[in-house]
Structure formats: C-alpha cells, structure tokens
Design goal:
By secondary structure, this protein is of the alpha+beta class. It has a single domain, classed as RelE-like (YaeB-like fold, 2-Layer Sandwich), CATH 3.30.2310. It is built from four helices and five strands; from the N terminus they run E-H-H-H-E-E-E-E-H. It has a five-stranded mixed sheet with strand order 1-5-4-3-2, with helices on both faces. Strand 2 and strand 3 form a beta hairpin. Helix 1 runs antiparallel to helix 2. It starts with a strand and ends with a helix.
Amino acid sequence: MNLSEVIVLQEAADDLDIGRWFYDGIELGVGDYFLDSLLSDIESLRLYAGIHSQYFGYHRLLAKRFPFAVYYEFKDHTAWIVAVLDMRQNPVSIRSALAVR
C-alpha cells in the first residue's frame, strides 16, 4: 500500500532521542547511525505499511540494524508512528508502554 504520509508522534520522537543518546553514550557517532537507520526503516512504511504483524494492538516493524521495533497504526493512507521501543526489555514493559499511548 502506498501511503501519502508517515507521521511520527511526539512520544515516538522522544523514544528515538532516548535511543540516540544511549548509543552515543557507548561510542560517539553511533547515535547518529542509529537515528539514520531507524528513520530509514520508518520511511519504508511508505511502501510496506500494513504488512507487519500486529502486537499489543499495533503493527510492528522490526528495525533492520538495531534491536528496536517501530509500533504504528495506519488509516486513511497515513501511518502514525506511536512508539519506537527497545526489544531487549520484558514484553510486559513493552505492553505497559504501549497501553499509555
């Protein structure tokens, strides 16, 4: 499905910033690579939105280079990115994080 728009909600943008800071803390510059990689994955939703399995009520796109997942919903040819979460945490924590969004 071709989308006309991909919208990253503020909570998801905050998640991206947290990931970027985390990886920059490991090695300077890796945070920028993280952000570029995740934004590339998010941009791929213009072509592939809706093909991903649903978890906790949202479609889930697994990032290609980092252990993160992009949770989104789509309607009216728009993908709404609601969260970008680290997959190395307990699934109960992921469910809780998504429940408040």
